[in-house]
Amino acid sequence: MPLLEIDNLHVCFDTRAGTVQALRGVSLTVAPGETLGIVGESGSGKSVTAQAVMGLIDVPGRISDGEILWEGKPLAGFAVANAARDIWGREITMIFQNPMTSLNPLMTVGAQIAEVIEVHMGSSRRAARRRAAELLSAVGISGAERRLDQYPHEFSGGMRQRVMIAMGIACEPKLLIADEPTTALDVTIQAQILELLAELQEKMGLAIVLITHDLGIVAGLCHRVAVMYAGQIVETGPVDAIFENPSHPYTQGLIRSTPGLDADEERLTAIDGAPPGLLQPPSGCAFLPRCPIGDEGCQGPQVLRAVGAGTVACRKAGEQAWREAV
Q: Where is the ABC transporter domain (predicted)?
């Protein structure tokens, strides 16, 4: 049984201009111990998917359809039963893109980590502080006892992200959602954070959902990948299969626009055009206006179907004509 199942999830945001359909039928699964990468352009619905799982969709947003299951049980049911604390923050945790805006600048780092342990684990203040020091050491911060009494602004960007990771693993969760965890960091620190996540996963048996726009990170850390476009999943599959033989024209475009060490081209190949607005999303393939091989037959709804080792929402996936076009 997968840890997390998302089935036909629809999320809307009511605005003055109309209803934005941020997610349109997203379905995903996450197995114990695996790393699932979610990639796509800004606005494709990656972060909204994570926020829905964590119960963070607030007014004017709402889940209009679909289901989120945790270990086979509806996640919404935990909230109704007033048991959300036992799931969110304990079994499912999340670290965000910018740790400086996620940490409270008026509280010491130690107090913030200890608070998580006290609330979710019922530990005493003294035990929680001791555990907080252990966690800081575990994520590679030296002088942990001294660092507990410092404030977020006294830490570098990379160290603040380590603090967020320490908070995320404080209750030994089963699933960690990392939303763009390395975007604001330089390349060297990025590598250290990713290495830390991999080490923690191996030690703790964590499942990780990694949200990113960096395909290089996905290639190095993830087992499976889900490609999102305009609020929908357009392709899923094992990482090796996606990179070696992408089936959707959008996935191919993402890979062709990513620099590589062995690339011979002087310039990267960009994807022409822009994603559609989601106030009135297209009824057919959302990628059609930007697709180099689309035709009139693509104007109807595109559903995920099995192609090779994964699934793809493209009627031309696997056709020889597609291979010649790309």
A: 4-255
